[in-house]
TrEMBL record:
Domain of life: Bacteria
NCBIfam families reported in the protein's UniProt record: iron-sulfur cluster assembly accessory protein (TIGR00049)
SUPFAM superfamilies on file: HesB-like domain
PANTHER family membership: IRON-SULFUR CLUSTER ASSEMBLY 2 HOMOLOG, MITOCHONDRIAL (PTHR43011:SF1)
Protein name in the entry: Iron-sulfur cluster assembly accessory protein
Species: Lysinibacillus irui
A Pfam short name: Fe-S_biosyn
Lineage, uppermost ranks: Bacteria, Bacillati, Bacillota, Bacilli, Bacillales
Domain Core residue range list: 8-108
């Protein structure tokens, strides 16, 4: 059974851009799934995608009109993570601040934690 729990925080700016992307990609009504994948320069990498299905072990939270899903397996790694959207002269993009990450790569999407290192890959 899906349970309600805030694992990550989505800022208002990030929520605005994610909602825009949902509309642009005709994904209204989908869920935003935030995941941890193996790989990347530091061993683990973040992922976000639109999903149509909740899984039984998901944690669910609603922020800025978005239903956010995180699996029970990924929740301890992502607990307290803040996802923001920053705009600069060179363009914009999502930033992820994970208090559980003890090392990260310059790319900003690869990291490792004290309890989970993953499998690092060669950066290109």
């Amino acid at each position: 059974m899906t349970s309600t729990k805030q694992v990550i925080e989505i800022t208002q700016a990030a929520g605005f851009h994610i909602n825009e992307m949902m509309e642009h990609n005709e994904e209204q009504g989908s869920f935003l799934r935030v995941v941890v994948n193996g790989g990347g320069c530091s061993g683990l990498s973040y992922g976000m995608h639109f999903d149509q299905e909740k899984k039984e072990d998901d944690f669910e939270d609603v922020q800025h009109g978005l239903t956010i899903l995180v699996s029970r397996e990924d929740a301890p790694i992502l607990m307290g993570t803040k996802i923001d959207y920053k705009q600069s002269l060179m363009g914009g993009g999502f930033t992820i601040d994970n208090p559980n990450a003890i090392a990260s790569c310059g790319c900003g999407t690869s990291f490792r934690t004290a309890k989970r290192e993953g499998t690092p890959e060669v950066c290109e």
